[in-house]
Amino acid sequence: MDREILKEKLLFYIAQGNGLSGEVRDLLMEFRDLGGHQADAEAIVKEIKQESTEELQQHADDVLDIISGWCTSEMRVWGDE
């Protein structure tokens, strides 16, 4: 999965208010399994935050929580990378 596809899909979930969801976790796991890196995913979400309203930024922060591991162990995607 390339960077633009991940960004588009994450923006879809963020716009719906679903930043902290199993769907987002599954998407990030797919990205990881295809060779994606934690730092790249984090950079993409930070781009989304810069381009978004304050409300959407809060939902983007939920995605960042999953990426950074600041979530339950069931939601975690990356270990220490």
Sheet with the most strands?
none
Say how many strands there are.
0
When the domains are counted, the total is 1
- What's the tally of helices? 4
Query: What structural class results from the helix and strand content?
Result: mainly alpha
What number is the mean pLDDT?
95
Order of helices and strands: HHHH
Strand content: under 5%
Distance between the termini: 19 Å
Computed CA radius of gyration, to the nearest angstrom:
11 Å
Helix % is 55-70%
Name the shape in a single word: globular
Unreliable segments of 5+ consecutive residues: none
Explain the overall architecture:
The chain is mostly helical and about 80 residues long. Helix content is about 65%, strand content about 0%. It has one domain (about 5-70). It has helices spanning about 5-15, 20-35, 40-50, 55-70. It is globular.
Characteristics:
81 residues, mainly alpha, 65% helix
Summarize the structure.
By secondary structure, the protein is mainly alpha-helical.
Topology:
Elements: H1 3-15, H2 22-33, H3 38-50, H4 54-68
Helix pairs in contact: 1-2, 1-3, 1-4, 3-4
